[in-house]
Amino acid sequence: xxxxxxxxxxxxxxxxxxxxxxxxxxxxxxxxxxxxxxxxxxxxxxxxxxxxxxxxxxxxxxxxxxxxxxxxxxxxxxxxxxxxxxxxxxxxxxxxxxxxxxxxxxxxxxxxxxxxxxxxxxxxxxxxxxxxxxxxxxxxxxxxxxxxxxxxxxxxxxxxxxxxxxxx
Length: 168
Hints:
There is one protein chain. With 168 residues, the chain is mostly helical. The chain folds into 2 domains: 2-103, Hypothetical protein, domain 2 (Endonuclease III, domain 1, Orthogonal Bundle); 107-168, Endonuclease Iii, domain 2 (Orthogonal Bundle), CATH 1.10.1670.40. It has 10 helices and no strands. It is globular, with a radius of gyration of 18 Å.
């Protein structure tokens, strides 16, 4: 749910929306059934777009009907979990990889579709153009089994010293 809310928003805006969303539920961790039962108007008032509401409903339905077994997440391989997650509308490979890295703490995730990673590789390896995802995979193969750590360092390499990403 958090990954969907944070898509294509600044961290501050997404955090505000997520806080409002979670505040709608007494347990502060909404069960999928509760999300399904929440009227669109309440979700919109929390700051969610119609599209993200549809994504959250699809996620909730897939969890409720067993298509996305959350109790098995820890036992699944990264590739198996990505395959399950991308079945949800609004969750693509990049979002699934961010979930693996930042929510599950998986150590060997290389987000080859991430523009920040591509730009950092371009800078670090002094390439003339940004590498394609297949090139990121090729370059990043040697970072395994610590690809997540390499990705974190690559993202940090883009900061200007003020915590902001460079404009490259």
